[in-house]
Task: structure prediction
Amino acid sequence: MFRRQIQRSVGRILLLAAVVVAGLASAFYILSQERLQSPFASSYTVYAAFAGVTGVAPGLGEPVNVSGVQVGQIGGAKLENGQGVLELKIDPQKLPRLYANARAVLVPSSPLKDMQVNLVPGGRPAPPLRDGATIPVGQTTTPIDADDLLNALDADTRTYIVTLLSGLDRGTRGRGPDLNALFRSLGPTMTQVRDVGDVLAARRRQVKRLVTNLSLLSRAAGAKDREIATVVGASNAMLGALAQQDGALRSSVAQLPPTLRTLRSTLGHTTQLADLLAPTLDALLPTARRLAPTLRGSRPLLQGGGLLPVADVKPFVDTILPLAKSLPATTSALSRAAGPQTTAFKVIEAFVNELAYQPPGRAHSFLYWLAWFGHNANSVVSTEDPNGAVLRGLTLLSCTSLTAQPALADLLKVTLGPTGPCAGGQG
Result:
């Protein structure tokens, strides 16, 4: 019979067990959300004295934060010498120690004035606080309530504030959707303002890096002032030498066009020679093929004419006769082609002689300055950027060179004014 009662009550027992388990789970969840501190957790206690602790409710897990990170809870409150003293339970794993110069600020964490304590741990050379030590009221700050602020004002100021708040209430009454739309429209603007701020911050870092690089470059250039002076002096001497040879350079440049025309004509005649040479060589090909047996047959003649049999002379002449017939045409073609070729090489010889000519005195030949020209040409394109080489250079002209050409002088007067760049006879 007892077994039957148990079988009939199994459903009720299971339902009761489920209700108990659900209650325990709900209680555990509620206590965890209330920041209930575990009795097995290790902590050390520090007291903080405040001028007032209004709104503090110990035991509800009100947090103690350091830089926004919770390191403990408010464990209790008491009154000592007219001051509110809060008991702060600190987790040593999150905040190992506090120092004697630590500061504590009591601030509300919600509009309902739930309070929390923000700590500044302090540091050396102040000594660490012992367990149970007190942060004095001179190192703590209590929030000022609105009624305390209003009580500190005179009657007229309080009247003005009340009037301002009443006007603000009337002005915003029923304008909730408009204010909501206003705040939403400010979202993209604030996003763009943040992007602009990020760009300005990045540009500031780039400017800082640029100034640092310029400082390093200036410092390095200052340490190499002798080398820079040597380079500038050598460049000045080179440009001066080129300026002294401007007449010779002008003459060489003037002779360059006819030289190039002659060279072009010579190359044209060379093309004609090549065109004539191809059929000539094709005509000589059968003769070259018969040359080997001819040379073998002429070997007795080369060894001694007296020993050459008379019967072998006729075959030898018959073999040489085709070659002798083709020689006049080949000689004429070579003679016609040799004339322009000779002229071209004479022009090239004159051009090379002009380059290698060493004038009397301290002047140098054009070959001497050709090396400088190559060096300067390399320097002109020695600077590059991501788009390729950047041309740079320096041109020095004297007033004599500028005014030597009437057309150039008139152009400079039109461009730079009546006085021109050589006013007063100065370069």
User: Anything to note?
Assistant: The first helix runs from residue 2 to 33. The chain is about 60% helix and 10% strand. Residues 58 and 76 are 5 Å apart (CA to CA).
